[in-house]
UniProtKB/TrEMBL annotation:
This is TlpA family protein disulfide reductase. SUPFAM superfamilies: Thioredoxin-like. Residues 49-191 form the Thioredoxin domain. Gene3D superfamilies: Glutaredoxin. InterPro entries: Redoxin (IPR013740), TAT_signal (IPR006311), Thioredoxin-like_sf (IPR036249), Thioredoxin_domain (IPR013766), Thioredoxin_ResA/DsbE_sf (IPR050553). Signal peptide: none annotated. It comes from Pseudoxanthomonas composti. One of its GO terms (molecular function) is oxidoreductase activity.
Length: 195
């Protein structure tokens, strides 16, 4: 039979563990698969493009600081826009597959562009460690950022959108691509041309 002292020690340890768990569960935590939460006040006023709708007008700075009009620059071929951030673990994990996919596409294949929801300094520093060969544009996360306008209402990263050669949104994907999924997910987009 346990002694009175042993019972008190177990009860004290349980109380300390319970208090620590309560502090942990009630304290703020950052889900590293999500961008900073957009302000909800502007959510109702943000125009979000639906599947089948034209891609919204998006002009964003490239890493050289020059504006890139996505619709004009990537017209006539399918376009995969992948929203990511340097702090997003699943984004980083899928980038080599996105890079290999982008390099495998021919003259009529799917173009890939990265939309970094991050500071230009963080993106440049990240790309020195994990280089990719597809173009990158950037923007700070906001209630009306480009990923939200393309349908990412939850602010979860990574987030991908497939735009057809005609400029219309074909598909959206919340979360990372599984190995081998990119090819199947984009299949058929390359045959939709403006001819």
């Amino acid at each position: 039979m346990p002694s009175h002292r042993a019972v008190l020690l177990v009860a004290l340890a349980a109380a300390v563990a319970g208090a620590a768990a309560g502090v942990y569960w009630s304290g703020p935590r950052l889900d590293r698969t999500q961008a900073p939460a957009p302000a909800t006040a502007a959510d109702a006023t943000v125009a979000v493009a639906d599947i089948g709708a034209p891609m919204p007008p998006l002009t964003l700075p490239g890493l050289d600081g020059q504006p890139v009009d996505l619709a004009a620059r990537y017209r006539g071929r399918p376009l995969l826009i992948n929203a990511w951030a340097s702090w997003c673990g699943p984004c980083v994990e899928e980038m080599p597959a996105l890079d290999a996919f982008a390099r495998s596409q021919g003259a009529r294949g799917v173009q890939v562009i990265g939309l970094a929801l991050d500071t230009p300094e963080a993106v440049r520093a990240f790309l020195t460690r994990v280089p990719v060969h597809y173009p990158i544009v950037h923007q700070l996360p906001a209630a009306d950022d480009a990923s939200v306008r393309l349908g990412n209402g939850q602010g979860v990263l990574p987030y991908s959108v497939l735009i057809g050669a005609d400029g219309r949104i074909l598909k959206r994907k919340l979360g990372p691509f599984r190995p081998g999924e990119l090819e199947a997910w984009t299949r058929g987009a390359e045959i939709q041309t403006n001819d």
